[in-house]
Amino acid sequence: MPATLLARNALVLVTMDGERREIPGGGLYAENGRIVAVGRDAELPQGADTVIDLSGHVVLPGLVNTHHHMVQSLTRAVPAAQDGELFTWLRTLYPLWAGLTPAMVETSTLTAMAELILSGCTTTSDHLYIYPNGCRLDDSIRAARQIGMRFHAARGSMSVGESKGGLPPDRVVEDEGFVMRDAERLIGAYHDPARFSMLRIVLAPCSPFTVSRDLMRETARLARSHDLTLHTHLAENDSDVLFSHQTLGMSPTDYVRELDWVGPDVWHAHCVKLDEPGISLFARTGTGIAHCPCSNMRLGSGIAPVHRFRAEGIRVGLGVDGSASNDGGHLLGEARQAMLLQRVANGPDAMSARGALEMATLGGARVLRRDDIGALAPDMAADFVAFDMSALPYAGALHDPVAALLFCQPQQVALSVINGEVVVRDGRLLTIDVAATVARHNAMAAELARQAGA
Ligand SMILES: [Zn+2]
């Protein structure tokens, strides 16, 4: 007998299906984590193992986060790193991150995932690129399994330290041979390519200013031999572009073209300063982008031309980016910022509430190269969230409850279901003890700062 779940009577259920239907009084029925039916009450089976009444709630497909560095949750609002641009900010924080331990990776990943889940996110990527003191990607994966989140774990890397012209201190970079062997180990141990997969491995050298051309090429070769996706940072701000011209002798666009780091299996974070040839290249090759508005604003990097990206048909998803440059992980809030920031650059009709929501759901799913999440329809994953519209911030906004989620102060979810499992109910995360995690996390954050003398 399959495990069945029926959620019904939503104020509005947003499907993000092919017709972008929004169903008043809608609900869905799922078996073993897979949606079987979506519609009004009369169109759904009347019973199930788990029945959830969603009256007064707006239901969305679970949001998808395409860029994060969860360990940075331990170094939020660090005084010395509050007001610098990207490179200064990184140089200030590398010494703190050098003290990370496996337990810190696991706890900070739990913290970051708890925050994301409560903000409406059900699938996330995490780009872990620093591995001091025996830290491994396995530490993040353990956390994802514990909390019950759908996870694209990116094996990041840094191999070019200061002595070789890179940005990070030598003591935090890794040997390239080891990086490749570890990537192969992780693929063998964890990667699940199947539909409805809860865990995929991504290969993700940190950035053009922290790894060699060789490592970029070798990583792409390995990823493509296993049909994995590839991820890195690109054209984040002016100093990033300047480094590219001065050290690599070419623009970020020419660099990724030369290395064949473009295509439907690749997505780049930020692209705030992607040039016109880059926009054409991405559109032509199906290359994706993770847009991280809060981080871009926090570091003063600029306004990514998302309006252009979308007009050109480029795959764009949202990312909260690392918690040290956000300094949070509220994905619905990120969608709101994306909407507002495009309006700053291009006028009030540059991005609608529904456009922002589409980027946060379908857009993210496409960036992660998934066809089983991002929409609520038969044969999609039962990943959905519900917001209680009786909350104070939505008072007076019920003329359009869906738009209210974006225009009004972002709230936490009342309900989150991931892979058919109820993970949040009545606003409470059921899979971990949040208070105990926060207490442990704060002790670890203090320890990191103490070790680094920050
Ligand atoms: Zn990043």
UniProtKB/TrEMBL annotation:
Its EC number is 3.5.4.32. CDD domains: ATZ_TRZ_like. It comes from the Bacteria. Residues 58-423 form the Amidohydrolase-related domain. Keywords: Hydrolase, Metal-binding, Zinc. GO terms for molecular function: 8-oxoguanine deaminase activity; deaminase activity; metal ion binding. Belongs to the metallo-dependent hydrolases superfamily. ATZ/TRZ family. PANTHER family: AMIDOHYDROLASE-RELATED DOMAIN-CONTAINING PROTEIN, AMINOHYDROLASE SSNA-RELATED. This is 8-oxoguanine deaminase.
